[in-house]
Each structure stands twice: as C-alpha cells, then as structure tokens.
Amino acid sequence: MPAAGIIDIHTHFATGGDTPSDEELATMRRLAGRHGITRVVELFNFGPGARPSIAEVRACNTCALRAMERMPDFVTGFCYLNPEHNAAFLKEETQRCIGDGGMRGLKLWVAVKATDKRLDPVMERAAELDVPVLHHAWYKATEQGEFESTPAEIAGLARRHPQVTIVMAHLTGDGMRGVHDILDCPNVLIDTSGGQPEAHLVAYAVKRLGANRVIYGSDWPIRDFGTQVGRVAGAEISDVDRALIFRGNAERILRLKESGA
C-alpha cells in the first residue's frame, strides 16, 4: 500500500437528493479507512435515471459539493453531466462545480453514447478546464444498454479528443477486449472497478497498457472496498506498479500534489 494511502477514483452516494447523509459519509470513511483508502472521488449519487434532468444533475453535483465541504481531506468530486442538455447549462454547471467549487473532473454515464457528437462540447470544456473525464464503458454478455458505450466507442471518443485525459470505467466489465481497444489511445486510463475480480486481469492491463494507464476504483457502494482493493493488492505486478495504480496515477491526473490536497 502507498504510504500516503489509496485514492479511489470511482465511488457514489446511495442516498439521493442534494445533501449526503451524515451516516453515509461516516460509513464511507470508516469502511474506506479499513483498507487504506484516504481519499475518494464521488461521481454522482444514485436516484436519477440514466438520462437525468437539469434539476437532477444539479442536485447530484450539489450533493458532492456539500460532501467536499464537510470532508475536504477525504472527498473529491467530479461534475456529473448529461450531454443532452444545452450549452449554456454545460458552461454554467462546470463553472459552479469545477471553476468555483473545486471539483477535479467530469463524469459521463449512459445518457448518450460516446459516438454522439453532443459529447464534443463536453470534451472541449474538459480541455478548456484541463480536467479528466471519467466515462462509463462495458461489454455486456446480454443486451447492451440503449445508450451504453463500449470500450471501442470510448477509444473513438479519445481519438476525436486526444488532448483530454479519459478514465474508462470498469476493467472487469471491459475485459481483455476492452484493454485491446484502447491500446493506441495514450490519453485513456482504465479503472479497476466493475463486477467481481477476475484472475490475472489487472496484471494483463498493466502488461498491455503500462501501469501508468491503470487506476484504482471500487464503484462503492455497489462493490465492496476490500474486495476491490484486493484485486490490485493480489495482482502479479511490481510494488512500483501497484503504487501507481493505488495512488500515483490519481495524484497526477487530479493534480493533487500541485494543489497541496
């Protein structure tokens, strides 16, 4: 484990609305701490559907901002967006959350596919603010969600916007095929979350991409912190690579050392 603790790039709140519960925040910190996690990135709180309204997006982001205010040494937020919304709201919300609120990235889920041109203004805004974008991806054995992106589609987005750092979510959901899809996209990292651990998958991602492109995420509370830490702690990789995955890569793309966070 890194001496300064693990950074978890992929967490959520289970409670809906615009205010995190004291109980959930305390539970999250207590359980994370058991496994050496000292900072989490909160992406959005569960409740709104896959295509949230402007009011729902704003509430999710307000929830993260309030958590950041309560636990600034533990919670970092990403600004959740639905690319269906208008350009004026995109600029206003990113200014509120990132420019004024101190969030350190953008989060996209399954409102539209990564191939949709409506993502271009979001990516351009990320480039302007110089922040990463964490985007959901998955290869489903069953029917893919209507607007759910595959790793191949994330790779296409990365090629359209090579100046933006993308964290492609869900190594287990993306699998070896997903790792292969992003081989030639140096601006894409893959987070280690998604389902239960599969033997050798973290080591495979490190071998093909390099440890500087693999980053730890749990997807808490859907998945358990301990199980997700275990998949990296038990991987057949070097201690140097493990430290990059658990902390170094997150410090770099979130610019935590630069800000003293």
Describe this structure in words.
This protein is an alpha/beta fold. The protein has a single domain (6-256), classed as Metal-dependent hydrolases (TIM Barrel, Alpha-Beta Barrel), CATH 3.20.20. The chain is 43% helix and 14% strand. The protein contains 10 helices and 9 strands. The chain has helices spanning 22-34, 54-70, 87-100, 120-129, 151-160, 171-181, 201-209, 225-233, 239-254, 256-259, and strands spanning 6-13, 37-45, 75-77, 79-80, 106-108, 133-135, 166-168, 188-191, 214-215. The strands form 2 sheets. It has a 6-stranded parallel beta sheet. It has a 3-stranded parallel beta sheet with strand order 1-2-3. Helix 5 links the parallel strand 6 and strand 7. Helix 6 packs parallel to helix 7 (201-209). The longest helix is centred in the N-terminal third of the chain and has 17 residues, at 54-70. The radius of gyration is 17 Å and the shape is globular. The two termini are 19 Å apart. The model has no long low-confidence stretch (mean pLDDT 95).
